[in-house]
Each structure stands twice: as structure tokens, then as C-alpha cells.
What does this fold into?
Amino acid sequence: MWARNLLFAGVCLGGLAALVAGLSPLHRRPSRETESPRPRPAEFASAVDRLNASLGDVRQREKLAPAPRAPVQAIARRLSLALMGTIPSLAEIRELEAQPDESVVAWWFDHLWADRRASDYLAERLARAYVGTQDGPFLIYRRRRFVSWLADELHANRPYDQLVTQLIATDGLWTSKPATNFITVTAMPDQERGPDPNLLAARVARAFLGVRLDCAECHDHPFQPWKQEQFQALAGFFACTHNSLRGIREIAGPIEVENSATATPVSVIPAVPFAEDCLPSTGPLRERLARWVTSAENSAFARATANRAWALLFGRPLVEPIDDIPVEGVPPALAILADDFVEHGYDLRRLLALIAASDAFQCDSRSAAEVNVAEDCAETLEQTTNDWTTFPLTRLRPEQVVGSLLQSASLPTLDHQSHIILRFGRAIGQAEFIKHYGDSGEDEFAPQAATIPQRLLLMNGQLVYDKTKDNLINNAATQIAALASSDEKAVEIAYLACLTRRPSAAESRHFAAKLADSRGTERRQRMQDLYWALVNSTEFSWNH
Amino acid sequence: MTYDTWQRRRFLQLAGLAGAGWLTTISEILAHRAEGRAPREPAQSVILLWLAGGPSQLETFDPHPGAAIAGGTTAIDTAVRGMQLAAGLARLAEQMADVSLVRSLVSKEGDHERGTYLVKTGYRPNPTLVHPSLGAICCHRLPVGNTEIPRHISILPNQWPARGGFLGNCYDAFKTSDPAEPVPDVVSRISAERQTARRQDREFVDRVFAQGRSRQTVAVQHGQMIEQAQSMMTSAQLRAFEISDEPVAVRAKYGDTPFGRGCLAARRLVEQGVRCVEVTLAGWDSHANNHGTHAQLLQILDPAFAALIQDLRERELLDRTVVLCGGEFGRTPRINPLDGRDHWPHGFSMALAGGGLRGGQVIGETDPEGGKHVADPRGVADIHATVLSALGIGPADEEISPAGRPVKLSEGAVIESLLTERG
It folds into this structure.
């Protein structure tokens, strides 16, 4: 009997020890293999040069001095936020700083791209343009299935033209062929209505071509070339798409779409509004449409994709608004990116890497020539620079703020290998935080200012409190207070963990003085106060 | 010669205008004398009682007692002769002299999210533009006054609280839960001394960040928002959320439920100059057990709605507060095999009261046989146009969307028969 008791006690103790070991900051996983970056071919460098030159031309004309290159930590922060929705961990910054300077950005890009978190995050961002954020029809629309499929495709770096072709043209069930959720999200089964050709035409035009053709849904567009007939003709490609027990299928029949102004059906002949030569004359309707959208000669496709990639990295698109790119007269930089994208087989990874390698992406957000502005003649956010001579300030999205908050409270990297309890806690805290912070939904690149409830949430909210309070197992603030070798070191670690940079001399002095001669609870409280000041700063909540 | 002619003509025209103007003034004076009072001030605030899920018109504001579609639901008489409500709304029935019903709302949105968007904004969802909700328009168009707390508040919001849309997220509703619980995030957890030190440290970090970025950091308004958040944290107006300040009898009248407390808080908030409060009562999506679900929810809705109207009237706030009550659509006249009713946007109801709108009116009529034909059909936008008019805001006024397109505040037509009482 005593042997059983002993065994039981042993199992309990062993379990507890494993738990503590897993959660402890002292427990370090061997860092992921630090490979050298995939060598970039020589022509990549010349593509970067062309891109830089095209933006440089504009600056020269306007006589604008470009900002110097940003510190490498700042560039790494931008990339992490764009590709993973979080800031780098202290552990990652250490790895980053061990890299040779000339290849560090390329190394960091490859390091992020290889991480499954990047494909998951990018899939969610792209899904907003493809299917929006609404719940969609019950049963026949599976958003999570769709997003995880999209993440798989991105992880495999499927050529983007093939990915889009799948979205538009796939037949089948929403479960076994997740791409079809692009179609089923527009159905309204409780109204006995199948997939909506008008909504689908609008989505295709906006998400893949950067054209707001749906502005002509009810009447001819007053100041763009689009006609209502053109919109209806494009919608015609979806008119024979139906939903059945076997899933999405094209069934031959009369090609009719609804006239949105009069709510009456009209017969149409499916046609495209531009680049007519790229439209195959035979084949199933949606397949013809997909081949037209992704045709190498249809320049709108590559431009729209390049503009979206730019927006993902900068937080604001090269041409605004993101889905309204003029047919004529796009910025030369957009044309260069689009051409490169087509030439290299619609490689999304290369497109993002190319933008990340540009001077515009790597320049400082501080301008070379400081201008002082009085508060009363201040510009609005929309009016601030988009000449790309400095990196623009954009508000972080809710999931980026909460991702950064959680990461800043943990010195090791929070990723798919983190302890299950940490991940579970993270997911709950994250969902609650986003609900209160307010998600901007589909319209994610419209310039937005900060709001009072958001500030209140970061100043007094539960998550910030939980993540900075006294907790030696989970919270970086407590750990730094207890373990850092000096006051200056403690301030430096807090700055690196929260703001991905070292403090200036003045900042180091200011905060080290506050920590000086403190110990125990008092020291931990002062460290919490420092953490609070950092996560409530402009610098923390904005991309820069 | 031409010059003289022009002058004479011009003179005559002006004289004519002046004459007409003079007549108008006289007629206005006469009209007001006949009414025996000065023209009414426009309404100042809106309270929306949001019945999320889509309440059945047949079990609430549009009963058809005795008809097959009633499924046994009976009706009760109200303070207004000839106007009936479904059984279960006895307390509201006493207040109906101040409440009007639109029974003929028709829409094309039978999905919860899309229907909610339509009823809250007055526009159908549109991928090109996010429209502002009614409350956001009120906050945007009406002056701030001395209000230090958020002017647009959503109590007990479901997943789609009212939004600022293209007017900006600064007009999004401030979300708060049951007033029995503290308002989220407005109380600091540390001593005043530490708070001050933290604030100074934050400003210090921001000053360092602003070096070289002064233009951009001014535009992002981060510091400004923090200051406003702080003034809200210390505002005495926050007490409006403390319904425990009210006498027990008043609280009892509203009902001891989260929704009842929300309605009471809404009244207190309106007193502080808050422009729009939405209070959500969810659970109306009765695909199964329709009658049972509604009977339960009416026990919550009836005392709260009735007490709100009575309380506002007794405090002379009803004339300056529009109260709306309804959900995203109605429910099918046919009862399904699970004893439920499904979504039905082809003839549903909304109640309107206060803000100088006429009470005791019924607009439109649904088919007692359960068909889609309704008498005097009205779009949801008509409700918006009517409420905006009551607030002294022109529904046809335009805002410019981010794409540079002029967008009317509402494309609906004012329901004139509800406005006639106004001076």
C-alpha cells in the first residue's frame, strides 16, 4: 500500500516539477536554428535598386531629403508586426543582434517567414479582403477552415495567381474544398438565396484588381469610367454558380443577375470591364474569369497585389485607398513591383521581401529636417507624409497591440512551441482585449486615430494589470526587477522587451534613478511603473 | 433703359418677397398662438432599446389575436383606444399615449449581422462604405456641451454595437456592461501618487519619441486621448452609471435585471448630456419555443420600457429624449415544427416615443393571414429620417465619405404623421 502512495506522490511531484520547469523563464529552449539567410540572387539587388530609384525620383522632384536608415531593431519590429502581429521577444532581439549587419534584415525576414505564426497571421489579414469579418451563413460557411487553408497555402508559398484561381474557380464542398468559402460566404440560405453574383463581382474587383467596380452597381459611376452594365456583366460570371448538397457547382442555365437599383433580374452576357483580350472564350464561367483576373497581361492584378503587400508592411498602401487604383498613372514604384511580381511567378514571399529591402521600408520615421508645428495648425493623420521619405506612423491593429503586450511581458519568445498553459491564457486574454479595443473590421487600412476607450484599456485594463503585476513565474517586469544585474541593465531590458530599442542616455538615467536603492516589493512596483509608462507610450501603440 | 427696367423688376421682386415673408411671420405667430405655446426645442438625445435577435412582432407590438398566425397569443388593450399590444406588456400598455408604433417596416435583410447594420445605420451593408449609426450622427452633429464622459454609450452590447463608421472610430459607442458592475477601465488600481508619477514618466518617454517626429506625433493625438481619458476618470458625471444612488422604489420599477438597470442608467446618462445610449436585451432569436422565449423576455422588457417612459415624462425629459425600441427584423407568421418562428424582414415593428414625436399612433398594418403584403410599408431609413428631424438634424444633409462621395444622413422619408405636433 505504501508503495502505491509513494508512487502517487512521485507522480504528483514530477508533474509539478515539469510544470514549473516549463513555465520558468530560466528554462530556455535551444533557440531555433539560426541559419544564414537564403542567398538573394544578384538580380534581386538590382530590383531593389530600381525600386529605390523610382521613389528617389519623386523625392528629387519635390526636393525632399530622405531620412537615414532606421536602427536595425526598429526595422525588425516593423517586420515582426507586419508578418506576425507582434513585436520581437528579448530572445529574438539577442539573436538578431548577433547577425552581421549587411544581411541582418534579409536574415530576419527569412526567419519570420519560416515561422508558422507568419502564415497564420498573413492568412487572417488577407482573409479580411477576401471574405470580410462577418460570421456569414451558418453551416455552409467555415471561416476558420478557410483561414487555416489559406495559411497552409501561404506557408507552402503557393504562387499567388494559383491561389486566387482556387478562390474564384473551385467547385465542391466548403469543408473538403475550403477555397469555396470565398463563394459560400455570400449566400443567404435562410432567404433561400444562393451565392450572390453582385457581392462576388464587387469582391473580385476590389480584392484582386484594386478596382471599385461596385461603385457602378446601381448606376453609372459619376467620375470614374465604370458603367452599370460593366458591373452586371462581371457579376454574370457568378450567375450560374449554385450551392447544393454537393457544394458549389456551376449549372448551365439562363445568365441573370439582379439590378441592384430596381431589384429586378436582368439578362447579361458575361464580360470583363478592361483587358478584354485576356479573357478565354471557352470554359466554365468562373474558370474563364479566374484566368482573366490572373493573366500576366492584366496589369491590374499584380498592381493590386503589390499595393496590398505594401500596405501590410507599412500599415498604409502605396496608392490610397487600397482598392481604388487608377487605371492610368500609377506611381512608378507600384509598376516596378507589379512587373517584378509577374516576372517571378507571382511569388508573394519575394514581393514582400523586395519591399522590405527598399530604402522606403528601412528608413527612419524621424525626418532628417525637423519641422516644428504648433498644435493649432497640425495636420490630420491622413495629411501626414506619404512621400515615403520617412516611415509613416500608423496605429497598430488590435491584435498587434495585444500581441505586443503579451510578448513584452515574456522574455522568451511566445510561439507555437510555448507551453500550452501560456498559449491558452494568451488566447483568452487576447480575445477579450480585442473585443474591448475595437476591431476595425474589413476596412483595415483607413487611417484611424486613437480613441479614449483604447487608452483607458491600456491605462487601467485587466490584461495590462495582469501582465505587469507581481508574478515571478509569468511576468517579465517582476523577473527583471529580481534578476537584472544593475539598475541600468534593468531599464535596458525593459526598453528592449517593450519598445525593441535601448533607452537613450537621458532615459537610462531617468529610470535608473527611480530604481536606485530599492529592493523587494518596492523595486518590483517601480519596475511595474516603468512597464506601465512604456506600454502606454505613443511608441508602443504605433508602428514607426 | 434696360438698367431701369432691371431695377424696377428687382425692386418688385424684393418687395414681393418681403411681403410674403411678412405674411409667413404673421401666420407663424397665429399658428403658435393657436397652439398656445412657443415652438418646441428639438430633442437632444436618443435611447435605443435594442432587442437583439429579432423579436416577433406578433408577440410584442403587432398582435393578431384570434388569427391562425397568432398561434394562441392574445392581446391586451392599452391607454389608447383601439391600439392593442400582445399580452405580457401590461405596464407598457399604460404608457401608450406617449408611444407610437410603426408596424409596417420592410427590409431585405434577413441575416442578423446585416439586419443589425441596416436598423442601426439606416443603410444596407455596402462593401464600399461603413455608414455611421444613428448615435454616431447625433454625436457628430450636436454640440458637445459640458459632457466629459463618452456621449455615445452601449450598455450590454452584443457583438455588433453601434459604430462611428466613416465619421471615425471616435464616434464608436463606449461599451459597458450591467450597471451593477463597475464601468470598465475607468478606475486606476494604484495610489494617486503612483498614478501621477506614471503619467509623468509616460510623458517623458513620449517627449523622447517626438524628437524628429513632432509633425506625426501631433497628428496621432495619443497624448490628447490620454488627457481626455484622464479627465473622464475623474469626472463627477461618471456617477451617472451608479444606479445604486437611486431610491429603491425607482430601481424596483425598472426591474431588478441587467436590462432594467441599463435603462435606468440610460435615463441618468441622458441627464448628463449623453447623446445616445443603446441598451441591449438579447435572446429574441426564437427559432424554437417562440412563445416561451418571448414570455420570459417580456417580463424583463415590459417594466423597464414602461418605467423609462414614465420616469422621463415625470422628470420633463421625455420631450427632449427620443426612445426607440425594436430589433433587426421580425419573425415569421408561420410557426415552424419546433414551435419557433424564423426570420421575417417583410413586416415588422418598432416603437417610438418622446422627443416631441406624437404618441398613440399606429403606422401601417401587417396581413392577418401572414402574407408579405403590408399596408403603408416603411423602410427602416424612414425611422432614421423621422428621428433625425426630431433632433433638429436635416435627414437630407450630407456628409462626405472618405472616397469623396456625398452621403445623406438618411435616405428615408420623414413619417409626417409622427411629427405634426412639433411647432
